[in-house]
Amino acid sequence: MNKENTALKETPNDHPIIDNIKDRWSPRVFADMPVSQTDLQSMFEAGRWAASSNNFQPWNIVWGIKGSETYDRIMNHLVEFNQSWATNAPVLMLGVINTKTPDGKENYHALHDLGQFTANMAIQAHSMGIAIHQMAGVNFESAKEDFGFPEEYHVATAITAGYYGGNDNDLNDDLQKEESALRKRKKQDEFLFNGDFIERESL
């Protein structure tokens, strides 16, 4: 039985939030339609205006559209598990940080800032009907060498992008189950502390 992926998944939020956050999720299948460079530039512009410690903006994005050499080069650095489904995506990216500040000190906030960039980009993308899915499964060192980044840079994540849609049958059985699983998050009282940290057992 074919099952089409849809943009909306039920999100059991406990408090009101805007739809672009509530409805955003990270699929592994995408509609069979390209993402234009114009749309990508709108997504990148949203990321460009993310908050950044000392305005250092340590993020760097390598991107490629399916069918291009850059897309294939990024794909080559994904771990096998991610390659198995990321081929559904019309766009692949690498999120790269400069781990040094302009005066050569360690930038301990660079990963946080890249996260801000990607979150901005994801919300902008969702407003356009485009989903992104971030991946930790990337061969960091080989990607860094292939794309010519200096020693102080770190390839932190890979990212897929594409319009919501597609067919879950393009995935293996285990991933089909994950795609249809209910969304869940920790409750606020598991990570909020109005005072001292209290270790809590995970549910």
UniProtKB/TrEMBL annotation:
Annotated InterPro entries: Nitroreductase, Nitroreductase-like
Coiled-coil portions: none
The keyword Oxidoreductase is assigned to this record: yes
Keyword Secreted carried by entry: no
CDD domains assigned to the protein according to its UniProt record, in alphabetical order: TdsD-like
Keywords attached to this entry: Oxidoreductase
Nitroreductase domain ranges (all copies): 21-81
GO MF: oxidoreductase activity
PANTHER family: NAD(P)H NITROREDUCTASE YDGI-RELATED, NADH DEHYDROGENASE_NAD(P)H NITROREDUCTASE XCC3605-RELATED
Similarity-based family: Belongs to the nitroreductase family.
Protein name as annotated: Nitroreductase
